[in-house]
Amino acid sequence: MARRARAVAAxxxxxLLGAAVPATQVAALDVAPLIHYTxxxxxxxxTVVDTSGNGRDGTIRQTGAQVADGVLSLxxxxxxTAAYLEIxxxxxxxxxxxxxxxxxxxxxxxANVAAAFIGAPVASGASYSSGYWLLNPTNPxxxxxxxxxxxxxxxxxxxxxxxxxxxxxxxxxxxxxAGMSLYTTVIDGTNGTLSVYVxxxxxxxxxxxxxxxxxxxxxxxxxxxxxxxxxxxxxxxDDVAIYGQALSxxxxxxxxxxxxxxxxxxxxxxxxxxxxxxxxPATSYGAQVTWQSDDAAITVDGAxxxxxRPAPGSxxxxxxxxxTFTVGTATRTAQYVVVVPEDVTDEDKAAADLDAIEIRTxxxxxxxxxxxxxxxSGSTIEWTVTDGQANAVLRDGVTPTSRTVDIARPxxxxxxxxxxxxxTxxxxxxxxxxxFRLTVQPMPTGTDDxxxxxxxxxxxxxxxxxxxxxxxxxxxxxxxxxxxxxxEPVFTSTQGTEGLRDPFIIRAPEGDRFYMLATDLKIAGLxxxxxxxxxxGSLHMEVWESDDLVTWSEQRHVQVSSPYAGNxxxxxxxxxxxxxxxxxxxxxxxxxxxxPADRTAVTYNRMMYATTDDFVxxxxxxxWIDVRRGAGRGMIDSTVAxxxxxxxxxxxxxxxxxxxxxxxxxxxxTVSGSLPSTSGAADQWTLVKERVATGLPNGEPGRxxxxxxxxxxxxxxAGDVNGHEWFLFIDxxxxxxxxxxxIPFGTDDLEDGNAWQPLGAxxxxxxxxxxxxxxxxxxxxxPVTRAEYQRVLEAYAPxxxxxxxxxxxxxxxxxxxxVFPRATLTTADGSTQTVDVAWDAVDPASYERxxxxxxxxxxxxxxxxxxxxxxxxxxxxxxEVAADTRCVAGKVVETARVTNISGxxxxxxxxxxxxxxxxxxxxxxxxxxxxxxxxxxxxxxxVTATVTGGGAVSTQYAARSCG
Length: 963
Description:
Layout: E1 35-37, E2 47-48, E3 58-61, E4 66-68, E5 71-77, E6 84-86, E7 97-106, E8 116-119, E9 132-136, E10 145-149, E11 161-162, E12 181-188, E13 193-198, E14 201-207, E15 220-223, E16 232-243, H1 249-266, E17 278-279, E18 283-284, E19 287-293, E20 298-301, E21 304-307, E22 317-327, E23 330-340, H2 346-355, E24 369-372, E25 380-387, E26 392-396, E27 402-407, E28 417-427, E29 430-440, E30 452-457, E31 469-473, E32 481-483, E33 500-507, E34 514-520, H3 529-535, E35 540-546, E36 556-559, E37 569-576, E38 581-589, E39 605-612, E40 622-626, E41 635-643, E42 646-653, E43 658-664, E44 671-672, E45 686-689, E46 709-715, E47 726-732, E48 741-747, E49 757-758, H4 760-765, E50 779-784, H5 786-796, E51 802-805, E52 809-813, E53 823-827, E54 832-835, E55 837-839, E56 851-859, E57 866-874, E58 879-888, E59 891-900, E60 906-912, E61 915-921, E62 926-932, E63 937-938, E64 941-947, E65 951-957, E66 960-961
Parallel strand pairs: 40-44, 52-57
Antiparallel strand pairs: 1-16, 2-3, 3-6, 4-5, 5-16, 6-15, 7-12, 7-16, 8-9, 8-15, 9-10, 10-11, 12-13, 13-14, 17-21, 18-19, 19-22, 20-21, 22-23, 24-27, 25-28, 26-27, 28-29, 30-31, 30-50, 31-32, 33-34, 34-35, 35-36, 37-38, 38-39, 39-40, 41-42, 42-43, 43-45, 46-47, 47-48, 48-49, 51-53, 53-54, ...
């Protein structure tokens, strides 16, 4: 239907089940638009149809635009890639009077961007148009901006802007309204005025000396950009109409009144059946909405429909909710039918609440467990430990409606313990019980020494990159890594946004359970990118658990943020012995409204925290760091380490995008208003170092670390080849001037913020890499035992995982240092390889006398497999030997003299180049032997005397000629 300005007589209408019926309208004045885009039809290729009938179709340029449900969505972003709509301008050239009216919802927030623009093209040698009209729904001060350049200044046209929200009068007019609103600008060149309206109400009127006809014979016109080198605008457009006349204030008001009511009614959806209370919208497309109910099964309490189900057996209730939509003096009503099912009996409610209780892996309990004390059907639930009290006790939970089963595991090597919990549900007159049988596993056996590392990470926003990949170190080396799973991600989200970022793995304090947390965020393809993600992003985090780092649970999509949050970013956790629970922390923007459509601009990220015993039940989220660091900026990406009772926290400060290091003896101490200084109480956070590692080399040739995010701090294993006590990996993406992967730093003193050493050059040459070329960004490095490391390699890198080592046997004689060979390894894929070994130093005392000892070494394969050699030391020979030659009848005769230096007779095998003989030599006696060569000359040679069971000794004689 063609869009027209009308004088409207509003009449009431009825909408059953939410189907809107337009009001009868009496048009006193018709004004047809020159150009009209309704976006009701999907574009043909890049063409958006002009529904005015004038054939002035628009063209979508660049990438990222979407048209669906009658709305054009523009993603914003870099000017050279962000999508926009180009409008043909032939009909606009020479227009002194023009009205532009468009329904828009801004997502860019407070920024210098253009949602609509008509102006002169950029002249040769210039940087921007010298004359234009520009609409920005939210200027950098948060006000509506609609301006005309009233004089000519090619060098700084922004200084000539006239209109509300202009560059030189940024806080004039009105603040940007929430949600979809009608922005109407009337350029009346005939009378020299600019009038700007929002939702039919004039917000400003100013005199102008120029109009569209002043901008020349060639024009450009856009939705979503201007000729300034600003980013593309991010938002939604419901309708665009351009009229060749200056509409009056009454016409603009009528235009909004009729269209707002149409859209408001169509924009409201109410459930067709409801067993619980539900929200009622108070506004829609600028219209105020009030509600009435015709049945006590639903009562209206402000913006909530309060449901009271009919008594059991009385039947369902059919309720009609009547909504009254008001715009100015115009109203319209719509009715919505909602069925409220009859209530169930108290016994059914109690049974349903007991049936809803789930204890994860009851046959494999290793950590504390949360259980509910209230059911969704209104039951109160009490818990008792009815069997196995030595292994389970009850205490207060992390929420007012939960209890914690505090688990005491049997000692290592003992049998698993059985525990029985009994839940008693009470609802009205009904009382029901249910038993839960748990098997509590004993504590793990074996060493808990860590000898390698596992790395979980994501690689960015590229195709398929927002998933979690794993890498394994090359043995005990945090700066050299193996790519796992053939470079393919291991974890893909099937819930929420279906994107995963910022994975974090934590080991339970018992040692044999792991939890992985990840951000529920997919930036690739998200209209509005990070801006949208912070205003209407996920309230959830993604959770997996495992006992071996290979077999993981199903993904859990857990809400931890309140509805007042706009995002839940980079969750990490820390086990607190003092609190006997996990503290989980993440970044969120907070808003005064729970409706994302009412959020006109990004606020700033706070670090939030909650506690949990099992990563299933979480306490209410609370602010941990609440400090605004600039427009839309706060604090994000905290990571924590504990040293000698002091917590060290590393957080990204968005004021300058660098890492800030603070410390406190109280993990849950909060910061608000301003960041702490270097002084303060020990149990409050105090500053250790701002801009950690900034200015140090980042490992890229000739480059430095300037800014970054996603810091990960972790302790070095004992024996790590790099010789540091702590590592700090900081993600330096391309938008922070980095190579788009982690940059490492090391220190031996976490207390000294200036002690970090740059280690990027080594890691740069030894990074894991996904099959698409992606390298590790925001993630976690966790130290692991050799057994855990081996399982990971066997699962994800069978060509690296060594399953057996060929026997290594070395012999030497007393007093002679052993010489070690290479090692032959067989891997899980069945292949073999022979590699060098870095052997431990051998104490000479080990081979002073006959015997056997073991020497350890590290194979120089990709896994740095530990190997052992058995060294057998033979006793030193009990004889001495001398050799010579002489001439007899022109021929050379070889002679040997064997002297027994022991106190017992020995049997000796004497061997030379020309013969051998076994003789018995008495104690402290010498035996002479000769060997005829029958040769006139012989070269130098060796004679060896081998004592049976006692080693060997050799000597050499010189060459001789008897000719």
